[in-house]
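Q: Here's a chain of 234 amino acids. Please give me its 3D structure as C-alpha cells.
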Amino acid sequence: LADHASAVGQYFGSVRVPSSFIAGASFAGLFTVKAPSEQTERIENLHRYIYHFCIIVAFLLAINTVMVSTAAYTKNLHGDFDPISTSGYMLLKREFEYEFTMTRWSFIVALLSFLVATANRILYEFKLFSLRPTPNRQRRRIIGTAVCLLMSSLIFHLLAFLNSTLICWNSLADMTIDLLKLIVKKGSWKKPLEPLSLVAATTGIGSIIYAFLFIKDEPAQPIQGSKRQHHRKK
C-alpha cells in the first residue's frame, strides 16, 4: 500500500491531450466533406452517412472526455478521498469510479469512431467503390479493399490491446454495461440536475437508433440523378 494521490492528477491531466486532438480534428472534419451531387451513387452516400455519424460521435465523446476529466481534476484538488491504495489504477477505480470509467470509455470509443470515420472518408472522397464503368474501376476497388483491410487491422489491433489493459473489466462490452449502471446510479436526486444524466443516456441511445434507421433506409432510395438520366434516354 502507498500514497497514489499524484496518479489521479496525472491520469485526468494526460487523457485530455489526445481527446482534445480528436475533438479538434473531428470538428474540422464536419465541414470539409464535398456536397453530394445528382450523380452521387448509393454506396457513396452510405460512406458519407457513416462518416458523418462516426465523426459526430467522436467529437461529442472527445468533448465529454475533456469536460469530465477537467472536472475530476478539479475535484481531486479538494482531497476528499483516501489516497492509500495498492496502485494508482485501483485508486481511480475506487475513489473516482464514475469519472474514470466515463473518460476511459469515451476516449476509447471516440478514437475507434474517428478511425471508422477516416476510413469512410477515404472511400467517399476517392470513390474507391464507385460502380461507374470507368477504365480504372477495378484498380479503385483493389485500393478500396486494401484501405478497408488496413483500417480494420488497426482497429482490431487497438481493440485487442485496449481490452488487455481493462484490468477491472473483461472486455469493452463489460465496461459499457458497467458505465450504464453508473449512469443510472448517478441519476439519483442527491444533487440538483443529476437526473439529467439519465436523460442524456436515453437521448444518446435514441440518436443511435434513428441514425441506424436513416443509414439503413436511405441507400435503398433511388438516386435523383439516375432518374433524370433514365428519362433523357427515353
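Q: Can you summarize the key feature?
A: Residues 219-234 have pLDDT under 50 and may be disordered.
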